[in-house]
Amino acid sequence: MEIKGEYRIAAPREKVFAALNDQAILKACIPGCESLEKLSDTEMTAKVRLRIGPVSAAFSGKVTLSDIDPPNGYKISGEGQGGVAGFAKGGAVVKLADDGGATILTYDVDAQVGGKIAQVGARLISGTAKKLADQFFGKFAESVGAPASAE
Amino acid sequence: MTTATGIGARVKRREDVRFLTGTGRYVDDLPLARATYAYFLRSPHAHAKIKGVDLSEAEKMPGVVAIFTGKDLAEAKVGSLICGWVVKDKHGEPHKAPPHPVLAADTVRYVGDPVVMVVANSHDEAKDAAEKIKVDYEVLPANVDLAKALDKGTAQVHAEAPGNLIYDWELGVKADVDAAFAKAAHVTKIDIVNNRLIPNAMEPRAAAAEYDKGTGHYTLWSTSQNPHVLRLILSAFVLGIPEHKLRVIAPDVGGGFGSKIFCYNEETAVCWASSRVGRPIKWTAERSESFMTDAHGRDHVTHAELALDKDGKFLALKVETIANMGAYLSTFSTAVPTYLYATLLAGQYTTPLIYANVKAAVTHTAPVDAYRGAGRPEATFVIESIVSQAAKDLKVDPAELRRKNFIPSTAFPYQTPVALQYDSGNYPPIIDEAMKIADYRGFEARRAEAKSRGKLRGIGFSSYIEACGLAPSQVIGQLGGGVGQWESAQLKFNPTGNVQVITGSHSHGQGHETTFAQIVSDKLGVPLENIEVVHGDTSTTTFGMGTYGSRSLAVGGSAIMKAADKIIAKGKKIAAHLMEASVDDVVFEDGTFKVAGTDKNVPLAQAVFAAYVPHNYPLAEIEPGMDENAFYDPANFVYPAGTQICEVEVDPDTGETQIVNFTAVDDFGNIINPMIVEGQVHGGIAQGVGQALLEHAVYDKETGQLVSGSYMDYTMPRADDVPSFKLGYKVTPCPHNPLGVKGCGEAGAIAAPAAVMNAVRDALAPLGVTHVPMPATPLSVWQLIHGASRAAAE
Question: How close B705 comes to chain A (CA, Å)?
Fold first, then answer.
């Protein structure tokens, strides 16, 4: 399952890229994020509470930044163990392009769940991942610059 | 003797009073002082290496009593769960037997594979603590798609089973079959998938165990269909607890359908841990766990070919099947797609040559084992699908083609080319009766009328045979089965004349407490209210083999008859003494010993009383007491057979299939309680309809996640999915058991999928649809209809 989207952010590309690497902004934007701690420039540990279908679970795991190509984009991936609920993992390839003084952010998300969450929520995961991606990038666009348009 | 409560009477099920008033006692109801509760942390991955298990946080959680991992069990030398049936492959080699650890230690092999057992003061505390366990998994590629399981490059499930192959087995001589095909006037070919099913017993699996430190005794309460067999497996193979130190009790059990035959991880772990913890441990599966871990059913991919001569006589049948075993070999998994499947491929027909090749594959999915019908529904689906397809190919009536190839009634006992010898049967009157009830002649008019309403109407036949009443022990032994297949019975009279009927079989919905009481009432003239049927406790019942394979009446009922014969024989001696007559002159009629030609008589109750208060009693000749044991080992399987006719209407706009008529005519031999038989047939057909139209256990082919893992995605048949069934009977009594009975528990589920699917195929045939996969869900039927209309337009 893949989900794509695009946002226009009213801020220059360098500023958007810096925000993508800003732990405080990420924490504020990741839906359900309870904690995000930096281990290195590219690795963080996170605690995220999510509800997928009828299952609500606290996931703890790693957030990794890779394919870092400033200021053109990177890949952000997360993998969390939800205890008895199973696991969730996913990533987004984020690309930034200039658009006058603003930036066009495109993302391409893939997500996967396992265990009990998949058992009762597999058919809901597309909708949930789409919603979570929209929440994340919507909030991100909002905190980095006034969103000029959102699709 | 036919009485209001004897053989043939529609006695209401006596056990239903407690089930319907909430006074049944199931494993989870058990009040155990100082009980702890187990929770199993399971793999969320289909295939992964366990690199580490961190219990540090979990151990500190409130209420935690103990936590056990696969390593702990390995160190304590807990054995592997076993597969109790050795199938030899076509080279004579025994099947590959990879280990099946109770808790996974190094590798997890399906979503739901248990990894850690947490024991705590409450279920919630155990679950909360499990939440804190960190298992470090290295996720590996999974082998999920059965059709590709044996391909090169597919992920390997076990090092012990190279290429994921458990066995490559065959029955019949391929060269002979090939020669017959070379001479055939017509060959019909089909490719079918027998969809994977999840058993869904109403009561989830449960276990509770208690260890008595003073005596060294373990007691295990389990939702088992065969408590003695479970005890034997746990004692002799897995836990090493001596049999006399382990008591297994299967109290009221809410349905099994085969899924509770097997020895499972959880009951084993709970039993083992009870002595370590020093307090009783209880575990009850959540519904999600039942979906993930109850042994699933069916799951075959099959190619079949039928050769016919120019007159439509079957010349030969060739079948190639890949059978899914799941990730581990469950207790009887290896026998299901071989000796319970290929041996049935003759069906009701005289097909002289049959060759079957079955490859059993392991995959990263839950174990697969016997499920209502076990092998026989898969065989019936193959035969009855290909016979109906052949009728379509040759443009002949499907009933006529069947009739032309039926084994004639004069040919019994009939030796099939696939090992079994059918003892009795008479198939033509069955199909005649079914066609009469179903008004087969009026079908074309109904089809035309449906068409005028825009509906596609179809009709389908399924003429099944099954071999059940498992089974002659020596045959089972020759075929690799690890157990005997007799049954035991004990008739234990009390001094006041009432009697306990103690059976080694186990009732979990079948109505034994009624049927068995009727047999005893009929045979011994004891009123029904004075008869109690006892089962399910290894300490209070004689060793028995349990209930599966429609065996309880044919084998267990026969054992009861033998014990009753012993009661009568002893009673005659006592009565002869009391009447001062010769034993040879004493007859037993209507519950009373009489001297022929006189009015002297001794009711059975009086003889019983004399046996327990032997003041006037032939003590020099016979022992006091009235308590007789019998074991019965059948001479052959029993062979119920029948024809089902299903009529459907498909709505081309929605793809929905509605069953508008369903007829089943069966030969179950003599019938003890017609109402219970009807209930068994109704339930069986509903399950078969579920498989044909609704139920499908689906794993994501990439990740191995169970996506139909709840009732949101796994559709069970409901009352409005089935019509009122029309039933009929033809009776050819079984010639080799004392009751003349066959078995009725599985027949409905064995025959129905083919009947329904043949009807759906018939309904869609005018559109040019030639292949309808099972289950025929509204979505897939709609796609077939619209694909066909698009193809026609192009």
Answer: 6
